[in-house]
């Protein structure tokens, strides 16, 4: 995975699908998708079996709110919602935003899942009890103080492929992907003090 090579499966036109409908999680109509700036990493979906591993690792269930930072087609927040959790997908690529919103709508999950067309570095993470990451190590490193600042103690972070530099994982598991590992972290009070 790198910054440049784009996976063609993501090629849905922004204008082609229309609006994904109203998510009950937000009080106003969803804003239209827009080009913000180039993505920091290309789209590469987490295999669905590995999505379940990540959600198991974070012990996701009803009462959780799972944020996926760079949500692609929305599969992680959709799978979280199937477990009774709320979901918020943050995605910078407007074609993927439309695709994810269409997937949420097709699953009938609009009431519990929202897809925001945002830069993950500018998003508000304070509503998350679980954050999912499948982005580059340098992005994880840059995000670390934001995670510590905005997440509550006890919030879990699961990272597919690349860990968060300088943050000791609570668990590391092998997954059948080319990057081979997934990582679990839990925000501790001392992290917040260090943020
Ligand atoms: C490797 S894909 C992971 C997709 C999804 N999370 C999954 O695991 O299936 C990374 C995603 O991050 C998005 N992305 C890259 N830079 C971003 C940024 N600054 N803000 C929000 N999304 C971004 C890309 O468009 C892409 O969809």
Can you characterise this structure?
- This protein has helices at 48-57, 75-82, 94-106, 137-150, 189-194, and strands at 65-69, 86-91, 113-117, 130-133, 156-160, 171-174, 181-186.
- By secondary structure, it is α/β, with parallel strands linked by helices.
- Helix 1 (48-57) packs across helix 2.
- It is globular and about 40 Å long.
- The model is unreliable at 5-28 (pLDDT under 50).
- The structure holds S-adenosylmethionine.
- S-adenosylmethionine (SAM) binds next to helix 2 and strand 2.
Instruction: Give the strand tally.
Output: 7
Sheet with the most strands, sense and barrel status: 7 strands, mixed
Instruction: Describe the global form.
Output: globular
- The arrangement of helices and strands along the chain is HEHEHEEHEEEH
Q: Which residue ranges are poorly predicted, with pLDDT under 50 across at least 5 consecutive positions? A: 5-28
How far is the first residue's CA from the last residue's CA? Answer: 29 Å
- The whole-angstrom Rg is 16 Å
Task: Tell me the fraction of residues in β-strands, as a range.
Answer: 15-25%
Structural class: alpha/beta
Helicity range of the residues?
25-40%
What does the oligomeric state look like here? single chain
Identify the strand order in the major beta sheet: 3-2-1-4-5-7-6
Q: How many helices in DSSP terms? A: 5
């Amino acid at each position: 995975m790198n910054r440049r090579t784009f996976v063609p499966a993501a090629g849905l036109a922004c204008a082609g699908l229309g609006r994904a409908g109203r998510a009950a999680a937000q009080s106003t109509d969803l804003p239209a998708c827009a080009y913000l700036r180039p993505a920091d990493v290309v789209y590469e979906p987490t295999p669905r079996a590995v999505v379940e591993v990540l959600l198991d690792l974070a012990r996701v269930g009803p009462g959780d709110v799972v944020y996926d930072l760079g949500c692609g087609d929305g599969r992680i927040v959709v799978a979280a919602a199937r477990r009774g959790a709320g979901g918020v997908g943050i995605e910078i690529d407007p074609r993927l935003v439309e695709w994810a919103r269409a997937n949420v709508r097709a699953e009938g999950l609009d009431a519990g899942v929202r897809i925001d067309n945002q830069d993950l570095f500018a998003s508000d993470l304070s509503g998350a009890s679980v954050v999912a990451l499948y982005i580059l190590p340098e992005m994880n490193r840059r995000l670390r103080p934001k995670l510590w600042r905005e997440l509550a103690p006890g919030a879990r972070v699961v990272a597919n492929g690349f860990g968060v530099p300088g943050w000791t994982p609570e668990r590391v598991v092998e997954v059948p992907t080319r990057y081979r590992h997934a990582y679990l972290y839990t925000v501790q009070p001392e992290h917040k003090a260090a943020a």
